Amino acid sequence: MTHILLTGASRGIGAAIAQSLSGEGLRLVGQSRRGDVSADFNDPAAPQALWQKALDALDGRIDVLINNAGIFEATPLDLDHDDWVAGWERTMRVNLTASAELCRLAVRHWQAEGLPGRIVNIASRAAY
To answer: Please, what are the averages of pLDDT over each run of 10 residues along the chain (128 residues)?
Structure first.
């Protein structure tokens, strides 16, 4: 049985991934607004809390982490400086920092348990 944590499972690519990973031999916990576990990656504590919720839901073992959650908010150059910085920092927290934290938690989990693991990081072309 393969245990999978998928972020951003509520729509688009994440929903399609969740649907395709619903087969026999797979246990999926999807992070979504409606789903099994939820997290607001604007909150710096959310990645660690999500990891723990997923571990609890998957009997203490995660074999695969799929980082798919992401946002896009326009931050035009002519915004007020503080508003531009706030938009930039929110995008980095959700799209980059939360994924990096989950990767770290996954690797540390696999090291501690002596397990192999897999990480899939998904990015949008909006990143360009």
So the answer is: 93 89 88 67 96 95 96 92 96 95 98 97 73
Nearest to 31, CA basis, from 68, 59, 63: 68
CA–CA gap between residue 108 and residue 90 (Å, rounded): 26
Which one, of 73, 50, 72, 71, lies nearest residue 62 by Cα?
50
Q: Taking phi first (over 0 means left), then psi (-120 to 50 degrees means alpha), and beta for anything else, what does residue 8 get?
A: left
Phi, psi angles (nearest 5°) of residue 94: -75, -45
User: What would the pLDDT profile of 11-44 be if each residue is shown by its tens digit?
Assistant: 889 889 998 998 889 999 986 544 567 889 999 9
Q: State the Cα–Cα distance between residues 25 and 14, nearest whole angstrom.
A: 19
Residue type present at position 74: A
